[in-house]
Amino acid sequence: MQWIRNSQLELARHTAILLVAARFLAETKRFDGTINAIFQPAEEIGRGAAAMIDQGLFERFDCDAVFGLHNIPGMRTGVFGFKPGIFWAAIDKIDIRLNGFGGHGALPHLSMDPLVAGASIVMALQTIVSRNVDPLESGVVTVGAFRSGEAGNVIPDTANLRLSLRSFTPAVRSILVDRVQAIAAHQARSFGVAMEAEVTPGCPALVNDPAQTAFARRIAAEHFDANAVSDLDRPMSVSDDFALFLQKRPGAYVVLGNGEQSYPLHHPKYDFNDDTILPAASYWVKLAQVFLS
Fold it and tell me: Which of 96, 123, 190, 237 is deepest in the core (most CB within 10 A)?
């Protein structure tokens, strides 16, 4: 699948940035202290950071602060974006399975159609943010996959929906998870089909430490210039379980512009801008050298 291929290439480029910086720092040794280069897997599904922490990351490789970086489309190439406080969203995933009673497409009255029930659920879920979340808060409910049936003249037995939920506060996070399950259950019951929901908790909202964010911003401004720095005025609704690292140590998560005309992340035509690799690596080098000067 093209999306999987692009995601793999994106991860490879982020890995290359840190490898270049780590090699330079190891060869030049122009710092006084210890630098831990953390290659974090499975960042969006909320499993990579948790596994590393559970396996004793900070006990085995203790540190005073942690810093992370992610390429972001829609920003000018090479511009570093900073925001203290809440920056990226929490994420949770829900898989919904509907079990009906299939049959001939010409005899729908003899069936319990899970596909129609699923379609009704998709539409009903759109009311959660508009009717259950405080208008001054925000949330995202996305149905990213809906699979049911294989033939136009057959009513299927089952339908499967896969959702991702994004939020910035624990209260909204709880509302989204609860309301998705409630709406899916009641909609399914109204169509006479059974519903099973599997909730996979992801990671909390990513919260940048103000002092470390100010430090990271200062390094970018001094190492490049003021035009390479963007002070972001609102959070982003994407997610990264680097948030779990920031619960253990103070630090900052930084974004780097991939280009204003770049296709969005996860788009089939998204392409990581390789021109950002060396500037990002040199930024890491400078930040580490100054922090440990």
Answer: 96
CA atoms within 13 A on the CB side of 16: 15
Which of 170, 185, 203 is the endpoint of a domain? Answer: 203
Q: What is the pLDDT along the chain (293 residues), one digit of tens a residue?
A: 444 444 555 667 889 999 999 999 999 999 999 999 999 887 766 688 999 999 999 999 999 999 999 999 999 999 999 999 999 999 999 999 999 999 999 999 999 999 999 999 999 999 999 999 999 999 999 999 999 999 999 999 999 999 999 999 999 999 999 999 999 999 999 999 999 999 999 999 999 999 999 999 999 999 998 899 999 999 999 999 999 999 999 999 999 999 999 988 888 888 888 899 999 999 999 999 999 99
Residue 176: CATH number of its domain? 3.30.70.360
Which alpha helices (DSSP H) does 196-276 contain, by range?
Answer: 210-223, 242-248
CA angle 111, 146, 45 (to 5 degrees): 140
Last residue of a domain, one of 203, 220, 245: 203
Q: What is the pTM of this model?
A: 0.91
Number of domains in the chain: 2
Integer angstrom CA distances of residue 259 from 34, 75, 256, 272: 34, 5, 9, 9
Range of the domain at 60: 2-88+207-291
